[in-house]
Amino acid sequence: MPTSEKPLVERIARVLAAEAHSSNAQGSDPSAAEKIDKVWPEHVNQAIAVLHTMREPDQQMAGVGDVETWARMVEEAIANAD
Predict the structure, then answer these.
(1) Which domain covers residue 42, as residue numbers?
(2) pLDDT at 33
(3) Which of 21, 34, 46, 56 is most buried by a 10 A CB count?
(4) Nearest-10 Cα torsion for 19, 22, 24, 30
(5) 29 φ, ψ (degrees, to nearest 5)
């Protein structure tokens, strides 16, 4: 399975920044890539909040995977967000 070179918290923060700024989402900028590169750090706290919510998988997720591994992976992403 491929892995990302960017930390999970950064990827989530970039999605949140894109949602706020890109006209492809809720924003107004038709070409927001450069702006997202600059402002994603402003969304890190929101990204960490998302990760805190994700620590516990739902029942469907738990039915197809290892709950302890999932929790450890998300906790690691939170720990590396600092």
Answers:
(1) 8-80
(2) 86
(3) 21
(4) 180
(5) -85, 115
Amino acid at 51: L
Residue closest to 29 by CA, chosen among 19, 40, 14? 19
Residues in contact with 13: Cβ distance below 8 Å, sequence separation at least 6, in sequence order: 40, 41, 43, 44, 46, 47
Asked if the structure places residue 71 within a domain, the reply is yes
Residue 3 lies in a domain: no
Give Rg (Cα) of the chain.
15
Which phi and psi (to 5°) does residue 40 adopt?
-55, -35
Closest CA to 52 of 69, 71, 66: 71
Q: Quick: pLDDT tens for 2-32.
A: 899 999 999 999 999 998 887 766 666 677 7
Exposed e or buried b per residue across 67-81, where buried means at least 16 C-beta atoms within 10 angstroms of its C-beta: eeebeeebeebbeeb
